[in-house]
# Entry
Amino acid sequence: MRLSERIRYVGVNDFQTTLFERQWPLPYGVSYNSYLVVGEKVALIDTAAAQFGDEFLSNIKAEIGDRPVDYLVVNHMEPDHSALQSLVRREYPACEIVTNAKAAPMIEGYQGITDNIKIIKEGETLPLGEVSLQFFMVPMVHWPETMVTWCPEENTLFSGDAFGTFKAVPESVIDSESTTFDDYKDEMTRYYASIVGKYGGPAQTALKKLGGLEIKRICATHGPVWQNSIPEVVALYDRLSRYDADHGVCLAYGSMYGNTKKAALELAEAIKAKGIPCAVHDLTEENYSFALRDVFKYDTVILGSPTYNNGIFPPVRQLMQAIADRMVKGRKFIAFGSFTWAASSVKLLNEMASGAGFEILSDGITFKQGYTKDKFDAEGLASLL
Ligand SMILES: Cc1cc2nc3c(=O)[nH]c(=O)nc-3n(C[C@H](O)[C@H](O)[C@H](O)COP(=O)(O)O)c2cc1C
Ligand SMILES: [Fe+2]
Ligand SMILES: [Fe+2]
# Structure
């Protein structure tokens, strides 16, 4: 697929994998994007996941026929992009790998490749004839070896996982009137929250470093090529990496026998009645990445958990731990839940939220045994928002 005379898309869509990184559901699939930059020399930027070797090679050959790939640029060593490096080497034995000093030992570690590797430095340029590539390190977005590749003649940024998103690429590959940023916004947020979320600081550093480039095309490793929504895509990444959020609530709960659930649904109604957006997630029904997405989206987190073995109900603890691991900042917090003989889930959730620096809006409500309206003042909690 031709993005321009000199830039070609050779990535693949994956509709088979159910869980990305064996953790994150893929209801709309995912793509592993790879690109060719075609000048007098041909550079391939990143590869794809292991199971797509045949399709990947045939995509390359459809673009360049019998011409060889002269360079393989390695921006990132996570195996969803690096697994086919050895295959590329077998097909194009003279192909020189172009990467940075942090990635080279990982290439040896994953692929056993040690020869014909060119180590480039920050800002260095690789000429390909009438086009060239320039390299910028973006460490910890989201691995230590991550870098981006810039093609100044095409104003194109090969950004690696930065600006990436779940959800396969459309037939057009490029964003268009029928495939807009809005179609991807939720999945981009979920990708960011799940995978990059801990690295807001490094992502901010990267955005500042790349801020001076006049970017007309973003070629990330997952999701569409962005040409028509670049300001929106960059603005979303900027907000997410600053942990900046809209006013609203992510209300997530787990419940074994329905009492905490009844309280959750009552509270959601009370919040919505005030005109405040409230996304509700049953953590026993769906993967926690959907709730995590809305923790990044909204400024208030409300968690419902029964007491379980003198602790937090495990699906709820998993989400709270994921929030803490990602060092989410600046959220308001409320907890609630049912218990039978000795309550502890609300107290423990409040402690974890305090540890994360969240503003605890209330001691929360812990109620004994069955849910009744008089044990749980939903309007009272909603009035704190
Ligand atoms: C395995 C298990 C462990 C529990 N541990 C505690 C506990 O340590 N303290 C307590 O007060 N209740 C405990 N409970 C009782 C629940 O908190 C109680 O059933 C609660 O009402 C469940 O709320 P739900 O209807 O929202 O699931 C436990 C229940 C189960 C099944
Ligand atoms: Fe990655
Ligand atoms: Fe990736």
User: Anything to note?
Assistant: The chain has a mean pLDDT of 98. The pocket of fe (ii) ion (ligand 3) is lined by residues 78, 80-81, 161, 221-222 (CB under 6 Å). The domain at 246-382 is CATH 3.40.50.360 (Rossmann fold).
